[in-house]
Amino acid sequence: MTVLTLTPNPSLDRSYEIPGLGRGAVLRAVGDRVDPGGKGVNVSRAVAAAGHRTVAVLPLGGPEGALLSRLLGELGIAVAGVPVRGSTRVNVALAESDGTLTKVNAAGPEVSEHESRALLETVAVEAARARSGERGATWLACCGSLPRGLADEWYAALVARAREAGVRVALDSSGPALAAALAERPDVVKPNAEELAEVVGRPLATVGDAVKAAEEVRAAGAGAVLASLGATGQLLVNADGARFASAPVEVVRSDVGAGDASLAGFLTVLASGGTGSEALASAVAHGAAAVQLPGSQMPAPDDLRPESVTVTTDVPLDLPLGLALSPVPSPNANGVV
């Protein structure tokens, strides 16, 4: 199996752990790190940490891009870089001791029409290479916001080309880019609660609201919806119906990249021939592990606690979003179903 990732606007992520954030003050960090960043890059990092093959397709520019490529190579990730004129962006995250996270995300370079075509062509080449002689499924994870220079319909064109090539597509984006891509029928979309509400054009208050919204997104073209509901848990709605999963988390150190780790856990199970319920359980285990790690560090197998995950078809429809489900499983909760 191979998981390809495309990150149109990657970054270097600098994270600082601080006791507290005060405006105008000199802050002393008690911990700091720099990680390869961008949603698709994080998916590749988590896939590689699990010992699976992954190729990261991304635009690279300036010394920041060179450092990003080197850091990915050190993690055992194959990099298919597309040179761009602008410099790869640098993002900053400030994590306070009480779990509050403040992020400053740079805009990133503007992508030219020539560079846009090069990204599409590189994805096609890497997809064909991955499928040649593959026994397992090949997935392409298209992740993150579109940089300046790319139209809202760019992801839609990419999904169409990937599906024509026989590659299964997972899309993790938001707003008009996500809405436009639904018509091309991505196999999986992965919104969080806010992004899901934006797609359907109304606020979501409960898990039941999220289920209805996910069903509408499927009706618009998505094969399945994997929705991250924060502390509440995760929801999978596909042709088999709806499933809900959750896991206890003792301490949240940083939620940067937690959703990306979840998507990686989900795709590695599906690419290996697992069921939707097994993939959902893996997604929750990866997400729960990621939020307990510093910065945007991705979980390794030893960080996972799959035995703590509960998956159920008895979805808690009335549970308000933002609240965690009781750790006591319901009679219909039966682990991985």
What does this structure look like?
With 337 residues, this protein is an alpha/beta fold. Helices cover 33% and strands 23% of the residues. The strands form two sheets. The protein has a ten-stranded mixed β-sheet, with helices on both faces. The protein starts with a strand and ends in a 25-residue tail after the last strand. The C terminus is likely disordered.
Provide a quick synopsis of the model:
The chain is α/β, with parallel strands linked by helices. The protein has helices spanning 39-49, 62-74, 113-131, 154-164, 175-181, 193-200, 207-219, 258-271, 276-290, and strands at 2-6, 11-18, 31-37, 53-60, 78-83, 89-96, 101-104, 138-143, 168-172, 188-189, 224-228, 234-238, 241-246, 310-312.
Key attributes of the depicted protein:
10-stranded mixed beta sheet; 9 helices; 4-stranded mixed beta sheet; 337 residues; globular; 14 strands; alpha/beta
SSE series: EEEHEHEEEHEHEHEHHEEEHHE
What is the number of helices? 9
Global structural class: alpha/beta
> Distance between termini?
23 Å
Task: Return residue spans where pLDDT drops below 50 for at least 5 consecutive residues.
Answer: 328-337
Coarse morphology: globular
Helix percentage: 25-40%
Strand content: 15-25%
Report on the biggest sheet: 10 strands, mixed
**Major sheet strand order:** 5-4-1-8-9-10-11-12-13-14
Based on CA atoms alone, the radius of gyration comes out at 19 Å
State the total count of DSSP E strands: 14
Please state the average pLDDT score: 92
